[in-house]
Amino acid sequence: MSPEPVNRWHARRVTRTLWLVLLVSCLEALAAEAAQRWVWRGDGVSLTLEALPARSVAAFYAARGFPEAVARDIASACVLQTELVHGAQSGKLRTDLSQWRIRPQGGRPQGLSPKTRWMAKFEAEEVPPAALVAFRWSTFPWRVELAPGEQMRGMILYGLAPGLRFDVEAPLELGGELLRARFTGVRCPDDEKPTKSEEE
Q1: Mean of the per-residue pLDDT values of the chain
Q2: Cα-atom radius of gyration of the chain, to the nearest Å?
């Protein structure tokens, strides 16, 4: 193989790595602005939900190529930064968002809207490909598997109205054993709630 293709491959790899580092840094900056935070801990595992200000989420996606109207639609869909940390000594930690259930205040339990549904919506609205990549990398993976000491962070769109309270049940599997992370009274961000932290 000639040096030129190798150099191009290396350049693409370095560019992608730098882009991911920048994206992670931006996600951490968003987390620092969290209006509210809910934490569940059990068996060395922690799951944290952070309500992100809608204005910050809209600015984040607009800066990555989303049309401003679409960025505002995302921001109004009850976006929570989610962090799953595997602090146990052994065993794989797994979760599947298709098994998560939310119960809006006064409503019935329901599942999360699949990321593929959002992607199809964005493609129909002719969102640029680079922006779609940013959406995929900034949102929490649909299925996660972590080894001890690893963690995963990303945004989840709950698709509920601003200010609405809801409960979350998130099944986790640790070394083949089922854990159920439960949150009550989680509140969709509306940019008006004062800072507060809660632990389950």
Answers
A1: 84
A2: 18
Tokens found for residue 44 = 């060395």
pLDDT digits (tens, 9 = 90+) for 101-144: 999 998 999 999 888 899 999 999 999 999 999 999 999 999 99
Q: Where are the alpha helices (DSSP H) in 1-150?
A: 3-32, 54-62, 68-75, 115-124, 129-138
Ranges of residues in the chain whose predicted pLDDT is under 50: 1-25, 27, 31-32, 192-197
Half-sphere exposure of 173 (CA within 13 A, CB side): 12
CA distance 89 to 45: 10
Residue 154 has which token pair?
């990303």
Strand, helix or coil for residue 177:
strand
What is d(CA 82, CA 191) in angstroms, rounded to the nearest whole number?
A: 18
**Cβ-proximal residues to 134 (8 Å cutoff; 6+ apart), any chain:** 23, 61, 64, 65
Strand ranges in 58-176 using DSSP code E only, listed in sequence order: 79-86, 93-96, 101-104, 143-146, 151-157, 165-174
Q: The pTM is what?
A: 0.79
Instruction: Classify each residue of 96-108 as buried b or exposed e, where b means 16 or more C-beta atoms within 10 Å of its C-beta.
Output: ebeebebebeeee
Contact assessment for residue 132 and residue 119, using Cβ atoms and an 8 Å cutoff:
yes
How far is Cα 58 from Cα 140, in angstroms, rounded to an integer?
17
